[in-house]
Each structure stands twice: as structure tokens, then as C-alpha cells.
Amino acid sequence: MADIVVDGRLDVEAVRSHFPALKQKQVFLDNAGGSQVLSNAINSIRTYLEETNVQLGASYNVGQKATQKYNQGLQAAADFMNATVDEIVIGPSTTQLFANLSQAFALSFPADAEIICSSVDHEANISSWVRLAKMRNLKLRWWTPSTEPGHLKLTPENLLPLLSEKTKLVTCTHTSNILGAIHDVKAIAEEVHTIPGAMLCVDGVAFAPHREVDVKALGVDFYSFSWYKVYGPHIAVLYASQSAQKSVSSLGHYFHTPADTLSTKLGLAAASYELVGTIPTLLAYFGPDSSSRRTTWVAIAAHEEKLQSILLDYLNGRDDVIVYSERSPDKALRVPVVSFSVRERSSKEVVEQVDRSSDYGIRWGHFYSKRLVDEILGLGDEGVVRVSMVHYNTGTSVSCLWVLRLRLIQ
Question: What is the pLDDT along the chain (410 residues), one digit of tens a residue?
């Protein structure tokens, strides 16, 4: 779908025409919790249920069409992240896929193995590993970069002191769903792989809506994100490299073949057929081939940099506002997921005042990154105010929001 980029620049009005929900008065600035859905994806679900809603694998005509659509969805999911079909599995959520992965890992770690978990992650990439460590009596190390609001970034340097010859798994986020800073996953993977047998598992949920994902270039062992954050329905995908899959046992039925695919090992029949069938429409939205998709992602990053510049310029100019993590709008450093708090004001109060005064949808809370909010930021139950933008948001809407906010928090 080539109509959203013109002369290398994002055509925002063309973008918005692909999202029916944007016709409402509501201004969606809570996109890190779930993006709006492309019209072609919505139509795909309806068409599948009307025309091909049968069990896969049948030899009759409609059965063959259903199987073909499902397989096309798997191929599109693999293409999206530069993987092969036997390296991915579709599931209901990233949380569930990591839980399945941890269960499939349960017997593969030696008794003295160590797991390193980032404490700035969404709980999806923490709780499963905490349970595994407890179940197997493994040593769990916490990777906490800093307690300073402007220095909450995971780096190879602050990981290095935690690594040892006993390290078997390191888990981290590509981009925190609160902090928005982009971690250098490739460099982190290289550091992890200096330990023989150590693997890296990355949560890409907050990164994938904003930038191109290339798991081979990143050098990761495991990588997961949710399609409902990337303009599609509520499903997720997990990648596992061929070498990493050797440590993953199968949770599937003993007679399932081929037994060496990730879907067979971890899928557990949890991939909704009609939702998987939408993934080719998501891939096509970004472009018909890898080159055009790369051009689209570059244009998206440039547009989003403008959006976060508007927001951060305002917030950074206020003495009563604390911006958490990266304060620069540089697209190389962050995505437009911006969290902050207002001195002597509760986050809930700030958001609810916006709710009462406008059609702008922003959120307060911990957003399932509760260890980060409680233990590092020290903010308690009400957490942060989060404004999370994507490429279908406009500069005008962001500017208007902060004119309103100026009135509310002075």
C-alpha cells in the first residue's frame, strides 16, 4: 500500500483514512495500550468468518482456502520481522507466549543456571522468568540501570557486571512502555553472547508500532510483540532463532508434525484463524516489498519525531513536571511514548481533568510495568501520566492538548 508516503514524507491524512475509528471525536493518545485497527484488517476478519470459517487442513475447496489464508498470515508475520515461518509462533498475547516459552524451558536449564531480568520491563517479560527461577531454584539477578529519572536506560555496560559463566538467559525490553527510550538491543545481544550458551529474550511490544523489526540484524534469540499494538487485532507473535529452539521442548501433542517448528512446540492451537488472516493486510499497509516498507518506517519515524518534539518541548520547559527517561525528541533515542508526573499533583487527578475538559484520551497508572513504577520511580499506585502517540496522530492534536494542559496544571 504505497499511498501513505509521498516524496519520502508521511501523508498523515492518507494514513488516517485507513483507520475508521479516527472519524470519531475522540483523540487517541493512549496507543501504547493498543492502537486503532486498519480498515483492511477489519474487513479481512469479516470476510474470513463469512467465507472460510472451517477447520484447517481439510481437502475440500473452502478448507483449502482457509488453510491458505492462515499460512499466508504466518508468512506475512515472518516477513514483518525478517524471520522464517518455522521460527515464529502466533498466540493470544506476548504475556502468554512468554509464559509458554518459560514452561518449555523448564527442564533445559542446569541446576546452577542464572537468569537476568530487567526491572524496567513490562511484567510480561518478568513474571514468567521469576516463576521459572522459583520452580527450578535458579538464581535470579535484577538488571536495574539507575534510579535517576533521566538515566533509566539498559546498556551493555550496566549489564556486564551481572553476567557470569552461569548466565543462561537475559531478558529485557526493546523500548519500555513507560520510558520510551530505545535500547541498543544489537549491542546487548552481542554482550550476552560472549557467554557460551547464554540467550537474550526481548519484549518488542512498545517498539514494533514505531520502527522496523529485523530479528536477524538484532541478533536476538527470542523476540515478541503484539499485533494489536501494530494496527491489527488482539494476537501476538514470538520469534525464536533456530539455535535457540534447541533448548525449547514441545508443549504440543506428541503426534503433531512437523515437530521442529515453533508453532508445533508452543502454539497450543491458540492462534485465532480469522485474526492470523489479517496479518497480510498489516504488512501490505507498510508497503509491497521490504524496500518500500523500509521507506515507510523511515517516514513514520520522522513524523513521530515531530510529534514528540511538540510534547517534550512543552514538558521540558516546566519546572513542575518530571519527565521520565529520555528528554530529547531525537528519533534515534526514543519513540513517542512519553511519561511524566506533575509535582504536588496526582497522576490520576491530572488525567481525569483532561477527561472532563476534552476529547483527548491519555492515561495514568503503572501500565503493567509495576516494578519500574514502584521500586525505581517510587511513584505508588497512581504511577505516571502517559501520552503515547503513533504515526496517525497529528501535530495539531498534540499542540492543542498542551494548550489545554497549560490551563489545567498551572
Answer: 458 999 999 999 999 999 999 999 999 999 999 999 999 999 999 999 999 999 999 999 999 999 999 999 999 999 999 999 999 999 999 999 999 999 998 878 999 999 999 999 999 999 999 999 999 999 999 999 876 666 789 999 999 999 999 999 999 999 999 999 999 999 999 999 999 999 999 999 999 999 999 999 999 999 999 999 999 999 999 999 999 999 999 999 988 877 778 999 999 999 999 999 999 999 999 999 999 999 999 999 999 999 999 999 999 999 999 999 889 999 999 999 999 999 999 999 999 999 998 999 999 999 999 999 999 999 988 999 999 999 999 999 888 877 666 555 55
Which residues, listed in sequence order, are joined to residue 361 by a DSSP beta bridge? 28
- Bridge partners (DSSP) of residue 222 are 201, 240
Cα distance between residue 247 and residue 220, in whole Å: 15
Count CB atoms within 10 A of the CB of residue 373.
Answer: 24
CA–CA dist 12, 300 (Å, integer): 10
Per the CB < 8 A criterion, the answer to whether 90 and 236 are in contact is yes
- Looking only at the bridges linking them, the beta strands covering 337-342 and 139-143 are unpaired
Residue 398 and residue 311 in contact, taking contact as beta carbons nearer than 8 Å: yes
CB 392 within 8 A of CB 22: yes
Contact present, 110 and 165 (Cβ < 8 Å): no
Give the pTM. Answer: 0.97
Task: Tell me which amino acid residue 237 is.
Answer: V
Report the alpha-carbon distance of residue 265 to residue 127 in Å, rounded.
21
For the chain, percent helix, then strand, then coil, each to nearest 5? 45, 15, 40
Backbone angles phi, psi at 384, to 5 degrees: -110, 165
Which residues make Cβ contacts (< 8 Å) with residue 122, sequence separation at least 6? 173, 176, 177, 203, 205, 206, 367, 368, 369
In this structure, what C-alpha cell is assigned to residue 44?
479481512
196: preceding bond cis by omega (within 30 degrees): no
Q: Which residues contact 137 (CB under 8 A, 6 or more apart)?
A: 111
337 SS3 class = strand
> What angle do the packed helices 290-316 and 395-409 form, to 10 degrees?
20
